[in-house]
Design goal:
By secondary structure, this protein is α+β, with helices and mostly antiparallel strands. It has helices spanning 2-29, 145-154, 192-211, 282-292, 339-357, 386-390, 426-430, 503-521, and strands at residues 38-41, 54-61, 71-73, 88-90, 114-115, 120-128, 131-138, 163-168, 214-215, 217-224, 232-233, 243-250, 257-264, 277-278, 293-294, 300-301, 306-311, 318-319, 325-326, 333-334, 363-365, 370-380, 402-412, 415-419, 423-424, 459-463, 472-473. Among the domains are: 27-53 and 369-521, no CATH class; 214-365, no CATH class. 22% of the residues lie in helices and 24% in strands.
Amino acid sequence: MKFLRRHKILSFLFVVLLLVVSVILYRMKGPYRSYRIDLVKPAPDGIAQPGMLEVGVAKRDITPDLSQYDTWTDVDGDGAFRPDKGDTYEDRNHNGTFDLVWIAGFDENRPAQGVHDPLWVRAIAFRNNGVTVAMVTIDSIGILEEPYIRIRKSLDPALKIDHVMFSCTHTHEGPDTTGIWSYSLLRPRFDAAYMALVERACKQAVEEAVRTAQPAVMHLTSTRLEPGAYSNDTRKPMVYDETLCLARFVKPDTDETIATMMSWGNHPECLEGKNLLISSDFVHYWREGVEQGLSDPDGVPGLGGICLFFQGMLGGLMTPMHMKVTARNGVDTFETASFEKAQALGEALAVRTVRALRDPDVMKIDNPFVAMAAKTVYVPVSGTFRIPIMLGLIHPGWHWGKIRTEINAFRVGDLDVLTLPGEIYPEIADGGIESPAGADFGILPAETPPLRSRMRGKVNMVIGLANDQLGYIIPRSQWDTKPPYAYDGKPQYGEVNSGGPAIAPTLHRESLLLLERLHHAAPN
């Protein structure tokens, strides 16, 4: 009998082990192993003359309904859910476990206790000269490649959409959409139902934007944001994303706004790591100010329409933390984490945005050409995430030391857009890469020339966290994990949340090639 019991136990353990190995092997392979993109539209030999540009816009609310989750009490007020320290929860559905909305960004174990402002999926579509493309921005910390593939495959083929680009605002106050912050890696509670909601919202917003596309006139401009005035660089060398890139689309022969696009790089983390309310941080106040206007003092009339913010170059680390932000009244200042600080920053950006787009020198483009290029690329991965990625825990699809990701390039008239799958350092796009003594490789800068110098638009947006999330994209010559350290004799934050030093030069090289292909398809 003992032999039979031991045999049954061993058989059971073997079956469990086999199931675990099967799941790991499946995740290593990934559910879309054969998925590849290699697109240029229009084809160089099939360029059609542009007519009137058509633009459509749509949005969907993706705020989690907290009434469908359990509630909890932060007994010690530390902003983390710690049952071992006395924190309690109300088991609303009586399933014997805690079903909470885990907020992404900063530390894990941070469940939401309420909603401050709604989260959104916002989509804009462009159609001209036989090309239809869409761009989507999502109030999320970041989303990996797999859900985007599912969304693309679910779109109505009758709409004949050539390509869709997705990016995230990188708010640190929204639900976990990667699985990294869901309680703990050893006890994950990833909310698949919420991710399904986000995917449905993306599909609906894209399809509505394309279906409702209407004739539009394009207004373009950019304005310089003074370094240190709106963001803080917390890693040397001090290089900022200084360019606020703007596009506004209005109905012909009117001043009625269809949509406004904004791109600039800064972490939405004015609220920092103790906040327990869902929010898009300063992005909420920025969009609201542009759409609805702001009262005096120092107010502006709203532009109307739907406002879309696309995250820019926020690596390095661009953040509003550890800096003072002045309110519009010119008197009150906010330095510590608060919604007042987020409001002050968002409203300051809204004022700059509206005034720039109302400037008499704004460029008006009546019939802009539309073109796009997109390419699947494979990047070597190392460092912190190598083993979790290899096991398919956080990024399905292991390609023998590399992972699959994607870069995109768009042209709409005199607007060029380049998208990258992570938090790119401004040095790579605008210049300023250093080769400091003491860094790990002791090489000259590899990511030259700066990417924005090879873009041909009068306004050039470099959008991060697009179609994937690979963490910080750090110049290889500035990679610094081993002593002697390059700056001040101590390590800096960044590498721990990066896919490795080979990602930046690979993406830089592939981006230059993709921009060349776009420019062949899109005449100046």
